[in-house]
Amino acid sequence: MILIDNSKVLNKGIAYQPYSRKQLLNVIAAKMSAYPDKPDHFVDWLCAGDEFAGQDRSLIAQAFLPRHLYGEYLAHIWRGALATCRQKNISVSVLQDTVCDLDVTESGVSMHLAGREVIHAGTCVLATGNQLPGNPAIKHESFYKSPLYFQNPWNIESVNGIAGSLPVLIMGNGLTMVDTVTGLLENGFNGSILSVSPNDYNILPQRHSLLRYTEISGELSENIPLYDLVRLVHKHIKKVRSLGISAGPVIDAIRPFTQTIWGNFTTEEKRVFLSRFRHLWGVARHRIPLTVHDRIQQLRIDGKLVVIAGKILDICESSNAAIVEYYDKKAGEIRKTGVSRVINCTGPETDFSKLDHHVLNSALHKGIITQDPFRLGIRPNTATFEVLNGEGKPQPVLLTLGGNLKGELWESTAVPELRVQAVALARWLL
Ligand SMILES: Cc1cc2nc3c(=O)[nH]c(=O)nc-3n(C[C@H](O)[C@H](O)[C@H](O)COP(=O)(O)OP(=O)(O)OC[C@H]3O[C@@H](n4cnc5c(N)ncnc54)[C@H](O)[C@@H]3O)c2cc1C
What we know:
alpha/beta; 4-stranded mixed beta sheet; FAD/NAD(P)-binding domain; about 35% helix
């Protein structure tokens, strides 16, 4: 078995080796076990360690813990897996390198590495996870080569070493914006922060992590049409709101059905969902811990963080500043402002044709992989994880999982989905 990964944070991923020890999981510990059939595994691991010795188990289970702790948990599991492999004489080698290109034949896959080596394997699993955010279209795209531009918001360089008194511009206002604002403050930035994105600020906090609302499940059918679903969700949200409860538990109740419902939508329904409801769904679904939400709101009250609904039209570099031109929706006018840097927090790019010098882009051009019509991921056979080639044929030697399945499954991002897929894919391989 050979694992090829190009990151320095091997085995933890960008999510679970954050630059700040204060960045929190957005899911309570009780829901973060790495194993679908051992729901208490993460909490058991926490309770067995020194950090939480003697503390109340139920409080630990309900807490939003630091993401780096989850990284340590994954590393612990990885070490255990390696030990098991040694006992069973299964060889595992780890290469820190980038796969730049693939060739697929019926008998296997050749992976061309940046270090020029070529690795041949009987089966290859594409577990490429989150890509860097794409560069939004602006008039002077040459700005994206400027040292004032930070395309990778998960890298500490994006938030430290800021000189001068100009504001910082964040593109996007979702969960990565929240992490970046926290990172800027932690790294001593004292100025103001602007965030521009198509929608106004509407990140919601996790208010009711433990409330269960099941009534909607009885009314959901697997092939419910999009507009019936919208009406049903509205009806139930109205009901919980009348009890003083926010929409969160209703949205959580739909989650076990989301993949099937999405799979049964027509292409037109998917298109309408993506253009009209994607943002609303994202807001309702990806909520943040209340303490973090309060911190962000306080910054907005204090005028330190200004969230603008609008569109960035252009950015140019001019004597140690970036001049940003954007359309402000509320004001109904184009504005210009100088900022000290621009950090891209627009979320991982899923259109592989836009990834420069990337294995997925090259595989797309070679017809080794194809994308769904909305370019959310790789087209697979979801029962077997086999990647479909340009002719729509499943390739038993090339498998994929995780974020790459978003086009087929929609909900294929967080640990509760990934752990189920990882077990099913491992069984399929065996
Ligand atoms: C900031 C952040 C926070 C998150 N927080 C949570 C949370 O609190 N709870 C939750 O349930 N989910 C969360 N998620 C979602 C999900 O759990 C994580 O994204 C998870 O790490 C995904 O795991 P993965 O292995 O699929 O991808 P990744 O962790 O992205 O790993 C993919 C690996 O492949 C490597 N790679 C990619 N291309 C190549 C190549 N060509 N050659 C070699 N190596 C390559 C990358 O360097 C990377 O190391 C979060 C995601 C992010 C981005």
